[in-house]
Amino acid sequence: MTGSRNTSLFALALLAPALLYIIGIVAYPLVDTVNLSFTNAALRPTYDWVGGENYQKIFRANFEQVIIRTFIWTFFSVLLKMVIGTLGAVMLNAAVPGRALFRILTMPPWIVPMAIGIFMWGWMYNGQFGMISGLLQNFGLVDGPVAWLAYGNTAFWATIVTDVWIGVPLVTIYLLAAMQSIPRDLYEAAWTDGAGRLYRFRRITLPMIIPALVTMSMLSLIATFNSFDIIWILTRGGPSGSTTTMIIDTYRVAIGSYKYGEGAARAVMICIFLSLFCLAYFRVVGKINTGEKA
Amino acid sequence: MSTKPMIDRYKWYEVVGIYAGIALFLFFVLAPFIEGFMVSLKPLSALFSSPYSFWPKNGSLTAYFTMWESVPGFWRYIANSLFISSVATIVVLILVVPAAYAFARFPFPGRGPLLGAFLAVNMFSGAVLLIPLFRLMRSLGLLNTYFAMIVPGVAFLIPTAIWLLRTYMMRIPRELDEAAWVDGASRLYTLRRVILPIAMPGIIVVAITTFIGAYAQQFIFALTFNSKTEFMPLPIGLFAYFGRQEVVWNELMAASFVGITPVLILIVFLQRYLVAGLTAGAVKQ
C-alpha cells in the first residue's frame, strides 16, 4: 500500500481506543500502585510521603513467610496441573470410541463461572455433609468426619486441589492439541520398527510436546500466582493464616483494613515477581521458537 | 474394528486401562458438579443426616421450584450477570476489532513491542491493581454501579481478544484490501465494507469467548466495587448466602445449576471454536 507514514498514522488511529483504555485501566493504576506504596494512604482523603516505611513494615510483619508460602502453594499447584494435564491429554489422545465426548466433558471447570465451581468444592470439603469426608467414612478409611478446611494443613492442600481442578482443563486441551499436531508418520515409522507404546511416548510424544509443556507451565505459573477467588471463597486465608498467599494478604490489608499504602507495597512485591516470571517466559518461549526455526 | 489401522489397535487390557484412566480423570473434573447436582435433588433433612449417602433418597426437583421464592432477587442476579457480560463483550469488540486489524495488516513502527505490551496485561490479575482501581472508580463516581464491574473487567478481556482476532485477520488475503484501494475506496471504507464482513465468523468466535470469559470471571471487582444487591452478579449474589447459618443448600445448588446452564449449553455447540480460542491465548508465534 502507498504512503508508509500515512499507513502508520491510520494504524495508530485504529489502535488508539484500545491503547488508551489499557493505559487508563491498567498502566496508570500500575504506576499509581508504586506511587501509593511510598505513602501512608488510607481512607482519609490526604496522605503523606513516607519513603520506604511500608516496605520495612511488611517485612517486620513476617511477609517473607507469606512469600515462601505463596511459592510452595504455586509450585505444587502448577506441578499437579502439568502432571494431571499430561496424563489426561495422553488418555484423551488414545484412539478409543467416545473421545470426542470425553473432551467436551473435560471443559466445565474452565468455562463455568469460577466462583460457582468453588462453592461446590466448599460443600465437598464440608466435614459433616460433604462428599469427600462422607465417602472416606463410608469406605472406612477415616474414623470420623474430616473438616478439610478447618485445619491449616488440610486447608492448604484443599485450596491447591481446587486450583488444580480449575486449571487442568486448559492444560489438558492445550497439550492434547500439541499431541495431535505431531506428524503421524513418526509414530508409524517407530511402530514399523517394533517400538512399543511406552517407548513411542517417551521418544516421540514427550520430546515433541516439551515446548507446549514449557509454555503452559509458565502461563499457569503466572495465573496461579495471581489466584484469588479460590482461597478467598474457601478459607479467606485461614485458618490462622495457613492459606494466606501474597494476593490474599494484599487484599486483607488494603481492602479489609483500608491500609492502601501498605497494601500497595505488597502489590508492588507481587508485580516484581510477576515481571520476573514474565521475563523468563519470553526468554524461554523465544528460545524454543528460534530453536524450532533453526 | 477391522477398518482401524493396526497401530491404533489396543489389546483388551489396554482398552480397560485407558477407560479406567479416563473415568478417574473425568471423575475428578466432574465430581463437584455431580455432587452439586445430587445436593440440589436432596431434601434438606436428608442433606444434614448421617451417614453420608451419595444418591439422593426420595430426591426430587422441588428445590428448582422453591428457590425462586427463597432466594429473592435470584432472577435479578442471573440477569445482572448476563447484562454485565454482554456490555463487556460489546465494549471489547468495539475496541478490539480496529486494533486487531491494525496489528494484522499494517507494518508500523513499534508494532511488536506494542503487541507484547497488550499481552503483558494478561500477567496481572485484577487483584494486584485493586487499590488504585478502587480509587479510580471512586473518583469517577462509578462505585456501586454496573460500570464498576464492567470497566475494569473489559481491560483484562482485551489482550486475548486482540490476539485471537489478529490471528484470524492475518488469514484474510491482502489482495482484497489492495483491490479496494485501487478502486479508490478509503481505508475506513475498506475496513467496514470489505474486511468486516469477511472477518465476521472470527469476530463471532471472539465475541463468544469474550462473553464466556466475562461470565466466568465475575467475582473480585463485583465483590470490591459494588455493595448494592440490585447490581450483584450471580456469583456474588450466591456468595452472600454461603456465609449464613440458615443456608438452604439444596436450593443454592439448584440456583448454581440454573446459573451455569447457559455456558454448559454453549460448550456442547461451540467446543471446537473454544479450543481454537484457548490454544491461541497462549503466546505462540
TrEMBL record, chain A:
<feature type="transmembrane region" description="Helical">
    <location>
        <begin position="104"/>
        <end position="124"/>
    </location>
</feature>
<feature type="transmembrane region" description="Helical">
    <location>
        <begin position="155"/>
        <end position="177"/>
    </location>
</feature>
<keyword id="KW-0813">Transport</keyword>
<feature type="transmembrane region" description="Helical">
    <location>
        <begin position="264"/>
        <end position="284"/>
    </location>
</feature>
<keyword id="KW-0812">Transmembrane</keyword>
<dbReference type="Pfam" id="PF00528">
    <property type="entry name" value="BPD_transp_1"/>
</dbReference>
<keyword id="KW-1133">Transmembrane helix</keyword>
<dbReference type="InterPro" id="IPR035906">
    <property type="entry name" value="MetI-like_sf"/>
</dbReference>
<comment type="similarity">
    <text>Belongs to the binding-protein-dependent transport system permease family.</text>
</comment>
<keyword id="KW-1003">Cell membrane</keyword>
<feature type="transmembrane region" description="Helical">
    <location>
        <begin position="71"/>
        <end position="92"/>
    </location>
</feature>
<feature type="transmembrane region" description="Helical">
    <location>
        <begin position="209"/>
        <end position="234"/>
    </location>
</feature>
<dbReference type="InterPro" id="IPR000515">
    <property type="entry name" value="MetI-like"/>
</dbReference>
<feature type="transmembrane region" description="Helical">
    <location>
        <begin position="9"/>
        <end position="31"/>
    </location>
</feature>
<feature type="domain" description="ABC transmembrane type-1">
    <location>
        <begin position="67"/>
        <end position="281"/>
    </location>
</feature>
<protein>
    <submittedName>
        <fullName>Sugar ABC transporter permease</fullName>
    </submittedName>
</protein>
<keyword id="KW-0472">Membrane</keyword>
Automatic annotation (TrEMBL), chain B:
<keyword id="KW-1003">Cell membrane</keyword>
<keyword id="KW-0813">Transport</keyword>
<keyword id="KW-0812">Transmembrane</keyword>
<feature type="domain" description="ABC transmembrane type-1">
    <location>
        <begin position="78"/>
        <end position="270"/>
    </location>
</feature>
<dbReference type="Pfam" id="PF00528">
    <property type="entry name" value="BPD_transp_1"/>
</dbReference>
<dbReference type="InterPro" id="IPR035906">
    <property type="entry name" value="MetI-like_sf"/>
</dbReference>
<dbReference type="InterPro" id="IPR050901">
    <property type="entry name" value="BP-dep_ABC_trans_perm"/>
</dbReference>
<dbReference type="InterPro" id="IPR000515">
    <property type="entry name" value="MetI-like"/>
</dbReference>
<feature type="transmembrane region" description="Helical">
    <location>
        <begin position="77"/>
        <end position="102"/>
    </location>
</feature>
<keyword id="KW-1133">Transmembrane helix</keyword>
<feature type="transmembrane region" description="Helical">
    <location>
        <begin position="12"/>
        <end position="34"/>
    </location>
</feature>
<feature type="transmembrane region" description="Helical">
    <location>
        <begin position="194"/>
        <end position="216"/>
    </location>
</feature>
<keyword id="KW-0472">Membrane</keyword>
<feature type="transmembrane region" description="Helical">
    <location>
        <begin position="114"/>
        <end position="134"/>
    </location>
</feature>
<feature type="transmembrane region" description="Helical">
    <location>
        <begin position="252"/>
        <end position="270"/>
    </location>
</feature>
<comment type="similarity">
    <text>Belongs to the binding-protein-dependent transport system permease family.</text>
</comment>
<feature type="transmembrane region" description="Helical">
    <location>
        <begin position="146"/>
        <end position="165"/>
    </location>
</feature>
<protein>
    <submittedName>
        <fullName>Carbohydrate ABC transporter permease</fullName>
    </submittedName>
</protein>
